[in-house]
Amino acid sequence: MTKFRPKYVTFDLYGTLINFAISAMSRVVFANRIDSEHMDQFVRDFSSFRYDEVLGAWKPYSDVITNAVRRTCKKWKLDFDMAEALSFYEAVPTWGPHPDVPAGLAKVAKEFPLVVLSNACDDQIGRNVEKLGAPVHKILTAQQAQAYKPRFQAFEYMFDQLGCGPEDILHVSSSIRYDLMTASYLGIGNTVYVNRGSEPGNPNLGYTEIRGINELPGVVGL
Asked: Is 18 helix (H, G, I), strand (E, B) or coil?
């Protein structure tokens, strides 16, 4: 990997760079309705419904979140509250980076243009990116692509906007199912899995595994 000099280093944002605290928030919001014995499963269900919501035609991310809350509540026989559901969406721009991100990202940014490809709406993402502590060359969203990852269309939009092919980038993500499986299918041969313990890995995808962005400079020979 250190012999490969990508034209761009591309990143997933939420979970990979930004501490996407939606699962922790759901534990607080539903603490008085879901007992501790069942909370892990409730959180997994909420995550699964969010994933299912992004697989079809594009819709605003506020709809993704509120629909996922509604469906999770239905499965668990809980009353649905729209204001409560929207509170998850409204919290997203307030979240900042993982502690390992700013220094490592700033070091990589000195040598490579950084690109964010995120399952976000344009009105959310700017405040999160401002917190990263490094210059970002281009911010690409699902709203712009009219498709959420893991759909191929999101990555194809990125290639078009950058004027490059899959062979020209190094893609970095903490998500196998949202990013790295699609990256593999599309021929992105240089990928980094940031193992934050949120998903099981899949070494068959041929990625380089790191524990935090502080390790990324070493991957690209810095």
From this structure: strand
